[in-house]
Amino acid sequence: MTARKMVMTDLLKAEDIKKALDAFAGETFDPKKFFEMIGMKAMTAENVKKVFQVLDVDGSGFIEEEELKFVLKGFSKDGRDLTDGETKAFLTAADKDGDGKIGIDEFEALVHE
């Protein structure tokens, strides 16, 4: 029997995710504020890395720009797509080594910044 893939609600409260998604429904997405609202800032580094693994759809070990656009869908199927501007701003905020993608340690650092 294979272990089922972890889902976001294994790690975070659905109501916190919904509140945060609603807050950014009509305004510019701010990843740091979003992560704080859903309770990730208070999580251990290990659990933040589990969230990263759920968001890393292709299992490459990185969240690339094309995955980042749909990052809110990783938290909830009701999440909206990020605009190109929001996607680029998120990437710029997290991509400390400038390789054009977000690694697991860069993600954890952004959450706990």
UniProtKB/TrEMBL annotation:
InterPro entries: EF-hand-dom_pair, EF_Hand_1_Ca_BS, EF_hand_dom, Parvalbumin. Residues 43-78, 82-113 form the EF-hand domain. Gene3D superfamilies: EF-hand. GO terms for cellular component: cytoplasm. Keywords: Calcium, Metal-binding, Muscle protein, Repeat. It comes from the Eukaryota. PANTHER family: PARVALBUMIN ALPHA (PTHR11653), PARVALBUMIN-7 (PTHR11653:SF21). This is Parvalbumin. It comes from Acanthochromis polyacanthus (spiny chromis).
